[in-house]
Structure formats: structure tokens, C-alpha cells
Amino acid sequence: MEEFADTKEDENKKIVHTYPLVQACDMSEEMKAETVEVIITACEKFGTDYFAAAKTVKQMLDKKYGPQWNAVVGEAFGIQITHQTNTLMYMFFGGNLGICAWKI
Amino acid sequence: MNQFNFFERCALTEEIILRDKEVQTTPPTKNDFCTYATQWIIYDAYNEDFLKQQEEKEKEKRDKVAVHASKKSASKKKKNDITEDQTEKNMLITAKFLERIINLNTMDAIAQDFRYYEDPSDQFRGRDGTLLPLWTMTYDRADNLHVTDISWSPDYFDMFAVTLGTPEGHLPLTDSPDVGYVCLWSLKNPSYPEYINQTHCGAMCLDFHRNHGFLLAVGFHDGHLAVYNVSLPTKEAQYMTDAVNTKHMACVRQVVWVKDLPDGELNFYSISEDGTVCNWLLMQSEMSKTIIVTLVLDIEPQITLGGISETLIGRGTTIAFHPENSGIYLVGTNEGYIFKCNTEWSSFFMQKFKAHEMSVYRIDYNKYDPNIYLSCSGDCTVKVWEDKSDIPLLIFDLLWSVSDVLWSPFSSTVFGVITEDCDVVFYDLDADKYKNICCQPIQPESQYQLTKLAFNWRMPVIVVGSSKSTIVALKMSPNLRLIMKPPKKGKHYTTQMLELEKLHKALDSTREPDTLVVPADDDTTDS
After folding, report:
1. Which UniProt keywords apply (chain B) (predicted)?
2. Which of B85, B202, B489, B490 has the greatest count of CB atoms below 10 A from its CB?
């Protein structure tokens, strides 16, 4: 019985998804691609330092699209926000990260 | 008021008045968003997405297989299409054949006249002749367009090409777009053109290549030029000018193919109302343009814009190449000037003179003596000129605007004229220098005007184009094409020599003597 469960776990373990997966987004196609790019670079650069990652995301987006941007990077969180239309990005990355960026 | 607190008026500054102004902009639209993320939600989302991707991949695979299968069946279908096309083609050929036979049957009388009828009354009429109307051809879909040019095919004596369009000066009708047509007509089928090609705007002029009878150069109203190969099934132009760089700035008025270059490259000349004569060389995939000459008028411009006076440029309307020396050509302009130019020298004109009071419509070299040429103009006159002279040898006043004039290819002294009030007039300088030998109205003048004339090079037939896209074919009676017969006895003269002599005899009396000869003094002879 245990063995059977182990083999099944092995099968499941084989698939570890780390690609960026956009959950909710109302940006234009161009902006969306660029924002995803920004988030990926930030998250890959800082690894587990989510604070630094969120800070970088915010700063880079501020530079690109003007203030004021907000970013949340974390493994588990709940948010309720009001954002400007066409500026919301909510995505998963690395298999265990949820990232949300928006502009007030 | 004392001098210490007195301020001069100019030292007083105005008090700045402050005003408040308020504007409220609409706030940027906002949305609410709420969510929460946990590890298992993230994990589930990834799995869901992965499954979706997997499914799509499989679907694509299945599609690929399906496409592969369908390709096979499609190729079968194509074969069917080809056979259908073939049958359609055969049908078209048969239908064309049928139409031709029916036309030949219904118009048998005209066809017989075309070949065999010679007006017997001509022998009692002195030198006067008549014209026998044969066919009238109309392309129904373009019946409001003008026939802007006619050119006989060099290969088939019963075929000619026609351009239809609205000529310069006539604005395109407001209720219809500016279109033009290039049509090939055959005398064997006067009911419908052999070849129709709709062009993007009014076609103005065309010319058949003399050696390659399938190549047709066409000039357009908007300055474009195109070369069509009428033997191909495609209606696309083989060569077309570039809309930005190469095309003429104004309406193209005449195109003329000239002798191929020594290395076999085809080339033609065009004259446009922007005052330039251009040479076009057909390369592998494009036409290369060379501006040969710009027709600069020597008149001082009367209007100056901001002190800058632009040089006046003649708006070219017609071009005629010297039949023997292909480097020399004559250009007529809208202002009534005739320029004699040379392809080698573009900086100066060999000759430049005011020939007419109004626009010159055609210049034509005599078929036998290239020193003699004709010009016609909107000022109702036709003038006969001799090379290197500014004074016309003969002037004919037609009382109506003359739209076209051409020397007859059959006789050295006969030329045909068409006027805007629908008369076709023939003159024979040998018979009468002041009176025409034939003046035949084609239509009541209110219906349309005549625009172009073309002599067939083999048969005694002329075609006349009108402003209602109608083309009328007319047969010249024997008196209009009298040829000098070589005498049976005595010295042997060729027809060529006799024709030349006839022309010179006719013109000699009009020429000014070269130098005044002082008559011999009677007294001196006495002593």
C-alpha cells in the first residue's frame, strides 16, 4: 500500500511547474508582456527575498509607466484593492509564488 | 505733489491682476480587485493550466494529421478544377468563335464593301473623293469616355488598340470614378472588343511596339506609364512606373516606341504635360527613366511669387520622331510652340518657334519626305512646315478646332484631318492647295466630337475615334489614294521618286525663293 503511494508521489513530483502563469490581467498586450518580464527578472534575481523582489518590481514599473505602483510578492496572501483600469497584473511564478502588481 | 514723490509715467508698472481659475478633470477609471493566494491554490492553478496545454498539444497533433489527409483530397480536387477551367476555356473560345461567325454573317455586306467596293462615281468627280462608312464600334460599358488614342497593330492589319479615358481639361464625371480602358478591336468582330483591360485611371495614349506587336505602352491621366503584354492571359501590367519616384507629374500625352538599343533593350519616349520628355528603358524587372529634355519657354513670367519668378515650362502635348534620323524629334506644346530637339543634346533646342495660337494637337512627318511636316491645333488651322523654317508653307483654316491630322501612307500629298464638329476632311496638295477634296460629316455635331484618327498601313481604311467611345471605320474611295504609277515607257522611275517629285512640285510654288535674282539689265545687253 505504502509502496503504491510512493510511486504515485514520484509521478506527481516529476512535474514541477515553474513557468509564469498569468491569472488576472487587464493590461494591453504590449504592457502585459513587459510587466511579466519585469516580474520574472525581479523574482529570479532575489530568490527568497520577497521584500527586495517586490521593491524592485514597484520601482521598475514606476520608472516605466509612471507612479504610483504597488507590488505584492508572497507565498500566501489575501488582498482587496482598488486599482486604475488597465493596470492590474496578478500572476503565479516559480511554482510557489503569487505576485500582484497594480497602479493606484 | 512735489518733485520727491513724483514718478514719471513710464516708470510706473502696471499692477498684475490675479484671477482664479478652476478645472476639474474626470478621475481615472478604477476597478476593484480582490483575491487570495495560498500554496494549494497556486498548485491547482498550475495543474489546470498544464492540462489545458496538454490538450491543446494533442489537438494540434490531430489537426496536423487531418490537414495531411485533407491535402491529399485537395490535390484531387485541384485536378478537377483544372479540368473545369479547361472546359470553361474551351467554352469561351467556342463562344468567341460563334460570335465572330454571327457577326461576319450579319455584317457580310459591310465586309464585302470593305474588301471589294470601289466607288464608281469617282471617275466622274475629277479629283474629289468620298468616304464609305463601314463599321461603328462602341464599348457599351464606357460610352461616356473619350477615345484618347488609336494605334494599329503592326502584325495584323485588321486589329487596332484604343485607349479610353477622360482627356485633360475634361474633369472626370463627378458621379463616376476616374476609370479608363485599353481595348483591342478587330474589324472581324465589331460588336465586342477582343481584349479589354480596365485601368486605374483614364488611359491617354498608347503605342504598339513595331517588332514585338504584343507589347503595348500606355500613358495615363495621372502621369503613370505602363507596358502591357496583350498576348498573356493576365491583365497585370508588365512594367509600371513608381508612384513616388518615377512617374510624370502630369498627364502623359503621347508615348512612342523607338528603335531598340544596340544590345537589344526596348525603350520608348513619353511626353507629358509637366513639360518633360522622358526615355524609358525596359530592364529585367523595372523601367529606368531618363529625362531627355525639359521644355523651357523663353517668356518672362508675368507673375512672381515673393520676388522669385519660376521659369515657364511648356506643357507638352505631342511628339513626333524624324523617320530617318531617330535622334531628332519635334514636340508640340499646349502654348502653341513647336520645339525641334535632339536626343543627344538636352540643354538647347535646335529650333523653337511659335507655330500656333493654341494647343498643338499633332505633328506628323511626311511619309515620303521627312523635311516636310504637318501640325494641327485648337486654333482651327493645319499648317504645313518645311524643316529649318519658321514660316509655314501652307495654312489651312478649317473653321473648327482640329483634333487630329495625319499624312496618308498611300500618297505623298494627301492628308486627312478631323475636326471637332465631326467632319473628316481630306486635302490633296497635288489636286488643290486651297480646297479640300473630301469633306464628310460623320455624325450631327451635337452628338459627339471626333478625337483621333488613324490610317491603316495596308488597307485603304481609316478609323476615327469620338468623345463617346465610338470608333468609326471608313473606307477611302480610289480618288483619295491615287498613287503615281511608274510610266511604262522611257526612263524607269520608282513610285517613291515620283511621289517625292509630286510633293515638291506641289510645294515649290509656295516656297519663298532662296535669294532674290536681279533680272538682267537690258542696257548692258545692248552695249
Report:
1. Cell projection, Cytoplasm, Cytoskeleton, Dynein, Microtubule, Motor protein, Repeat, WD repeat
2. B202
Q: Grid coordinates representing B478?
A: 480610289
d(CA A81, CA A102): 9
Phi and psi based region of residue B448 (left: phi greater than 0; alpha: psi -120 to 50; beta: remaining): beta
Instruction: Quick: pLDDT tens for B379-396.
Output: 889 999 988 888 888 899
**Residue B150 or residue B510, greater confidence:** B150
ipTM of model over 0.85: no
pLDDT at B172 over 70: no
Of B30, B36, B46, the CB nearest to A92: B46
The reported pLDDT for the residue numbered A102 is 92
Distance from CA of A48 to the nearest CA of B (A): 15
In chain A, the residue whose alpha carbon lies closest to the alpha carbon of B36 is A78
Are A79 and B49 within 8 A, CB to CB?
no
Q: Confidence class of residue B163 from pLDDT cuts 50, 70 and 90?
A: very high
Query: Are B279 and B256 spatial neighbours (Cβ–Cβ below 8 Å)?
Result: no
Give CA–CA dist B176/B179, Å, rounded: 8
Q: Quick one: which of A34, A30, A24 has its CA closest to A99?
A: A24
DSSP secondary structure code for residue B343 in this structure: S
pLDDT of residue B56: 92
| Alpha carbon distance B328, B174 (integer Å) | 41
Cis peptide bond prior to B496, omega within 30° of 0? no
C-alpha separations of B358 from B105, B273, B333 in Å? 47, 15, 9
Question: Per CB distance under 8 Å, which residues of A are interface residues toward B?
Answer: 15, 17, 21, 23-24, 26, 74-85, 88, 90, 92, 95-98, 100, 102
Residues from chain A contacting residue B51 (CB–CB below 8 Å): none
pLDDT 10s digits, A80-92: 999 988 889 999 9
Pick the residue of A9, A81, A100 with the most B CBs within 10 A to test the interface with B by mutation: A81
CA distance B194 to B185: 6
Interchain proximity A80–B31, CB inside 8 Å: no
Find where cell 483600469 sits.
Answer: A85
Q: Is the dihedral of CA B332, B333, B334, B336 positive or negative?
A: negative
Tell me which chain B residues have a C-beta less than 8 angstroms from the C-beta of A77.
36-37
Average pLDDT over residues B6-14: 80
Paired with B340 in beta bridges are B330, B351
C-alpha cell at B96: 468567341
Residue in A79, A92, A100 nearest the CB of B42: A92
CB contact (8 A) between residue B37 and residue A92: yes
